[in-house]
User: Fold this.
Amino acid sequence: MKQRLRCDETPAWTQLLSHFDQHGRHFDVRADFERDPDRFSRFSQSAPHVFADLSKNRIDAQAEALLMQLARETGLEAHRDAMLAGEPVNSTEGRAVMHHLLRNQPCSDGQGGSLPVFRGAVADAAMPDVNATLRDMLTFAERVRADAQITDIVNIGIGGSDLGPQMAVVALQAHALPGKRFHFVSNVDGDELGEVLEQIKPAHTLFLVASKTFTTRETMTNAHSARRWFLEQGGADLARHFVALTTNLEAAQAFGIRTTFGFRDWVGGRYSMWSAIGLPLAIAIGAEGFRALLGGAHAMDLHFAHTPLERNLPVRLGLLDVWYRNFHGFASRSVAPYHHGLRRLPAYLQQLEMESNGKRVDLQGRALGYSTSPVVWGEPGTNGQHAFFQMIHQGTDIVPVEFIAVREPAHDLPGHHAQLVANALAQAQALLQGRSDAGGHRHFPGNRPSTFFVLERMDPTTLGALVALYEHRVFVSGSVWGINSFDQWGVELGKQLAQDIQPRLATGDVRGLDASTAGLLRQFRPRF
Ligand code: F6P
Assistant:
């Protein structure tokens, strides 16, 4: 790909700055609703399995048109197509980014038609392997589902080898096979593994050691402790009870694992729930459910690949993120799923967005003169309303909120769902309208932005589409910012220093440490 123009060097950026000064800074969404009877339809749209209302955001048609121009001037379309074609867009690691191939399956569009697949030399070369692994993994998942001896599945992994499958297993609980319990152990804090080990029996447990690299220290420590526990508890047939999900098949074999499901280095950790890393989910919801998840994501991939930018939902969302971060200066975004099943979604999105776009240099390594990833945070509604929503309504900072609600609940308890949905709608309304009939402490300024996603129901297809929507949206803002959304060098330094510090805890050697770290280390002596 030829070198792309940096966003702050484009004509659109300059025009956006002046549009923001003239119209954006004091833009009142309420006034625009008065002026423009079509505002709701202009700023809302359907994408596969997701309806999105963006109309309560502080954006007008002119700003959105300029953002589209910005996308074109920074080469977003060419960049997207390069990624989809398998070019090495993860340039700092020299890798392609092709998680979309993992869901490159012909599938139904929900209206009786069949969705096309991505074709091309790279896809054609990769697909036989992708399909074979998927088939093997789903066959294995079905075997575990049918095995009444196995009652507990323990996933040992961290970051992308934990958050995606965990979030999805929790979200799709209503679709999960009864009689199997799922545990996720990520932290090296022994309390987490210890708590799980107290609940399980070796003969009835399947351990999944999930690690792309099979070198991550937390995961390896937990895996070794689990193996030791298994043997000490009289567990027999380690090969039956331990499975590895990894790109590093050799290391898994050296650990003593015989059953391994692999994937390629073109699947980033935080983009890996569609790969073998999704095995716990496949066990929970079965082969058909997992294929439906892939199908939903694939439908969103096709929408992202082929819909003109102006009606392309990930593009509109990603550009809104740029507008908020670089022009309005909003530093964070809150995610409020009004669905109990999505309670792990904010944690999942934190890694997806902040590990992808928390970067301070461009693709050439030059420092940026503008902000990148916002802080992404949140809790399910209605709980958040009784905690931090005070700050969102009346605090000094503007925090755009993302509401997510489903039309059909999975339970049949009377009254609950209407109350839940009413609260989500009311919060978005209150943020927009505010309240000026009372002064002082009771005044709500209003004009506080939000986006509202409506999902038909929480099922594998919908979840797949929703997650793919977020993946592509993160790609869009990262692409406009000219950063590499697919590396994560920022996690390395702490890992290295921990290796230096750990032996010092035993010896008490503080030579070369700064005074604070030395002082803190002494606080832990003579414990080690
Ligand atoms: O924290 C960095 C990171 O590399 C994440 O990107 C990744 O998801 C996680 O660690 C786990 O890595 P692995 O799957 O290789 O154990």
